[in-house]
Each structure stands twice: as C-alpha cells, then as structure tokens.
Amino acid sequence: MSHEVTDKSNSRFKTLDLVYCSIGAALIAICSWISIPTAVPFTLQTFAVFLVLLLLGGKRGTIATLIYVLLGAVGAPVFAGFGGGFGVLLGSTGGYIMGFLFIGLIYILFERVSKNNIAVKMAALVLGLIVCYAFGTAWFMHVYTTNTGEVGLLTVLGWCVFPFIVPDLVKMALAAVIAKRIEPVIKK
User: 22-70 pLDDT, tens per residue?
Assistant: First the structure.
C-alpha cells in the first residue's frame, strides 16, 4: 500500500518538474521576442535564463533551457525575431544561444556548493555568462571567418560582447530581485 503512495508521489513530482521546465522554456521564448531598441538592440533572453535558473534550480532550469534550444533547433520560432531552425544555431550568433546551456551547467556545479547562498548563485551566473560569451564569441569568429573573411577578436567583442555586459548584469540583478519575490510560491 505504501509503495503505491510513493509511486504516485514520485510520478506527481516528475509531472511537476515537466510543467516547470515547460513554463521555463516558454518564458525564455517569450523573452527572446522582446527586443529593447538601443544603439545595439538586445533581447531579454538572458534575463529569462537567469530567472529560470534562480527560480527552478540548476537541474530544472538547465532542462528548461535545453527544451528552448531544441524547440528552436526543430524550427519553432522561439529565437529572437521569431527565428527558428537548425540554421539559426549554425549561424554566427548560434554559439551564444547554445552558450545558455553552459550557464545552466555552471549553475548546477555551484548549486552543489550552496543551494541557498545568493552570492554563490550570482557568482555562478556571472561565471556562466563569461563562458557563454567566450563560447559564443569563438563560434561567431569561426562562422564569420568561414563565410565572410578574417575578423579580429576585439572587433567581435565590440560587436557581440562589450555592448551587452552592462545590460546583462542589470538583467541578472533584476532576475535575482524577481526570483526572491516569486521563489516562496515555487515548489522545490
């Protein structure tokens, strides 16, 4: 009898995980469509990745991010500008999208050190963002060089990283504030 209760409890937990991961992937997609017009326009994708990780934890947040990337890869218009398809991931900015997964993986590693320490969580997000930038920049340089010609590292950083550092840090801080307010209603 108690075995049945345990199975139902585990089944419900798995279902709840799937629901949270799906909602997280949807949030990332919706935020990728929101473009803030500035000298260099940017989306709220990274904000959503940060928020999903902070709210759902490393495992569920990373799975949500993976679902988002896979949905885009199979053609769902979930990327910025309602883009989708494997070609977007293979394009010059695809490395930054795939880099979101590195943010999640690093978050998982840091979460093992301290689940409830906000300083550790923020350090994980900062380090993850640095790795995302590095992977995305290397990817961009490879694709750009293959398709267009040589391009210098500082030029690519000027196009793809430097304009986004401050906005991404602001989005990270905003995600932390919002997560702190919403976290009490999320079932862990």
Answer: 999 999 999 999 988 765 568 999 999 999 999 999 999 999 999 999 9
- Are 28 and 21 in contact by the 8 Å Cβ rule? The answer is no
Cα separation of 161 and 96, whole Å? Answer: 10
Contact in structure between 27 and 47 (CB atoms under 8 Å):
no
pTM (two decimals): 0.90
Q: Please give the helix or strand (H or E) that residue 35 lies within, else none.
A: strand 35-36
Torsion, Cα of 58, 59, 65, 67 (10° steps): -170
Domains within the chain, CATH numbers bracketed: 2-185 (1.10.1760.20)
Closest CA to 133 of 151, 106, 113: 106
